[in-house]
Amino acid sequence: MNCKMEEFHKVNPQAKKKGFGRLFRSPTLFEDVIKSILLCNCSWTRSLQMAKALCDLQFKLSTPKRKRGCRNNTQLIPSGNFPTPRELVSLNDKTLNQRCNLGYRASNILRLAQQIQNGTLKLSAFEENYDLQSTEELYRKLLSIKGFGPFACANVMMCIGFYQKIPVDTETIKHLKEVHGMKFPTKRATTVQIYDKYEPFQCLAYWMERVDYYEKRFGKLSELPPSNYGNVTGSYIGPRDSEGKVEE
Fold first, then answer.
1. What residue stretches are annotated with the HhH-GPD domain (predicted)?
2. 204's torsion region: left (phi>0), alpha (psi -120 to 50) or beta?
3. More confident residue, 109 or 184
């Protein structure tokens, strides 16, 4: 973690009281990067569907039988994990889209996998070569990647451990309206009016609120069955019990 937990708890005592301060991330930065792309311009349920389709694809690629659209016949271990860059570059973007229904994202994801595989893009450099004083440089570097906008960049930075930028989407706007009572929230309002007092931990403070908001409605997120993951969104409206939680 790039920032000390104690420093976050100093600027946000409520986080210390709740025991909040870390965010889960994927086993590899590549998986976090691709999932950040999958979050863009679609619903949360759709994002989950595309991520699952990629894992299903990885399992299918594990068979030695040559698939239509593949460039080689490499035998892979049948694990059903998230695909690696090496596995994805065995496909063309048409095949990738057909199997995973990724839409415009397919070509961007495949291009990224190819750049990583041929060494022109080193994701490890994002974690090793930047610190709190160079986060703007990191942001610009991420923004130069095809398919990356402000949301995806902020999301990846959060996964790496830099929390100054908040990945703003429709869920953020709903959160500002419902939790902070803002009638016409803007991206600027997100960082300046509410979260800049927590610098450089704006995103951690934001996610502490989001987790609290969701758990009041759905119960402990760590205990939620996978079948209900798609419901964890501000867009979901369901029956509530006496404590305000969504009834099963």
1. 34-191
2. alpha
3. 109
